[in-house]
Design brief:
Elements lengths: L14 H22 L4 H28 L5 H24 L6 H29 L2
Helix pairs in contact: 1-2, 1-4, 2-3, 3-4
Length: 134
């Protein structure tokens, strides 16, 4: 079942970034599906690790792009990435080390964070690129 749609409002026009965003959304769907059927703790943990690892890969690509175009707000953008990494790592550590449970609300929060980040921060990169080409 699909819980999180990658709609046209999220398209940046940068093909590699858009494909990575779509894949992140598929991980959120996998996590939500696993939660909805009551999957074992190790499956949820593996999906959280997959989310973390892929987010790191994606953020690295975005940061390299920003460096290559001399993006002026790179420090702020990277700080947002670091905040997301810290949040996910905190969830993973609490889930692994305690009886903390990952819920649909947790997944929805992470998804909402990514969606907002794409719509606001990532779109600013696209705007900068568009203005730079003028």
């Amino acid at each position: 079942m699909r819980y999180f749609e990658f709609d046209n409002s999220l398209i940046t026009g940068i093909k590699s970034i858009d494909e990575q965003h779509k894949y992140l959304f598929s991980i959120f769907d996998d996590l939500m599906n696993a939660l909805s059927i009551g999957s074992a703790k190790n499956i949820i943990y593996d999906l959280l690790m997959k989310l973390k690892d892929y987010a790191l890969y994606h953020f690295n690509d975005e940061e390299n792009l920003m460096i290559s175009i001399n993006y002026p707000d790179i420090d702020f953008h990277m700080e947002e990435h670091n905040n997301f990494k810290k949040i996910v790592e905190q969830y993973i550590n609490e889930y692994k080390d305690t009886n903390y449970s990952i819920t649909a609300d947790t997944t929805d929060f992470l998804y909402s964070w990514i969606r907002h980040h794409i719509l606001i921060s990532d779109k600013k990169i696209v705007e900068y690129l568009s203005n730079k080409k003028i």
